[in-house]
Amino acid sequence: MAEYASEKGVKVQTVAGDPPAPFEGQVWYNSSTGSHRVNKGALVSAWATGGALNTGRQKTATAGTQTAALTFGGNLGVTNYTQTESYNGTSWTEVNDLGTGRYSGGAAGISTAALYFGGAYPFTGATESWNGTNWTEVNDLNTGRYGGGSAGTSTAALYFGGDNPPDSDASTELWNGTNWTEVNNMTFGHIYFGSNGTQTSALGYGGNPNYSQTESWNGSNWTEVNDLNTAAGRQAGAGADNTSALAFGGIHPTVSPPISAFTESWNGTNWTEVNDMNTGRFYLSGTGIQTSALAVGGSPAPINSSTEEFSETGGNQSVASS
Question: Which of 51, 271, 299, 320 is deepest in the core (most CB within 10 A)?
Fold first, then answer.
């Protein structure tokens, strides 16, 4: 920041997007994303192996951060799991179970205050709240479904898209800590896709069987924005809001091998390919932020117990406005 001030003065330039070749320490205001940005030098990204789950499974839901996460539910074969596990950045510990075993539901919150909603099978609108010790059943979704996208906290959550057989569903519902309320639909129905964000700033991308579409939520409406570079379904995502996201894993039917390790990073305008996961997988779950994400479980065997941790340093990053 001191270098930028000495070279350019204290006035920060407003631009419609990130500059094409900013120098390290350069600061600007991106009017498209509504955020201040800074270049933190050469971009370096990598996935590392984390602690293994005690109960291997796919289609779990995960909430929290890379170093304080909670994963719950999931399935493997014909078994629907109630198991809940807590992650401390090194290892997973089994804690109290869900009330109802199910898979492919939505997750919101942190490791000590989480929400699990929807899921299968059969598809359901059941919602459970986690207080750091136990799960409690609370009010159901208006439309039971599974494989949707989710964002937010345990008291202000968002659930969107998913499958309500026989059709994909574009419904969006808001949770206020007590009830779910239907709001404006997505542009089109997605199922098994990546998602992240808050109740007022969320992103949904990709989806089964082979979508590249990305949709952005501003708290009132969905808008289609720029596509993923590689279409995918059954992937996961992480990120703070609709200006910063990470998409990873999935099935890419148009590439070989189709079981993907691909990872893409979203800057509020475009997706950029970054370093792949160590092991390709699908039906996984994710949590965290764009620069510090967690990938949990998935298929095919024997990776159902494995965890991977993503880290990214340098590059163009958003900074807090003051």
Answer: 271
Do strands 13-15 and 27-30 pair parallel, antiparallel, or not at all (unpaired)? parallel
Please give the pLDDT value at position 320: 60
Q: What is the largest CA-CA distance in the chain?
A: 64
Closest CA to 28 of 13, 41, 17: 13
Q: What is the mean pLDDT of residues 252-261?
A: 88
CA 81: distance to chain centroid? 21
Residues 6 or more apart in contact with residue 211 via CB below 8 angstroms: 190, 193, 231, 232, 233
Residue 181, CA distances (Å) to 5, 110, 116, 184 in order: 48, 22, 16, 10
Q: How confident is the model at residue 315 (pLDDT cuts 50, 70, 90)?
A: confident
Sole residue written with tokens 């419609």: 16
Tokens of 126: 């059941």
Strand ordering across the sheet containing 149-152: 149-152, 157-160, 172-175, 180-183
pTM across the whole model: 0.87
CA gyration radius for the chain?
Answer: 19
Each residue's pLDDT tens digit, 94-120: 999 999 999 999 999 999 999 999 999
26-35, 204-213, 242-251: lowest mean pLDDT where?
26-35
Domains contained in the chain, CATH given: 2-39 (no CATH), 45-312 (2.120.10.80)
Q: In what side-by-side order are the strands of the sheet with 214-217?
A: 194-197, 202-205, 214-217, 222-225
Q: What sign has the CA pseudo-torsion 86, 137, 240, 263?
A: positive
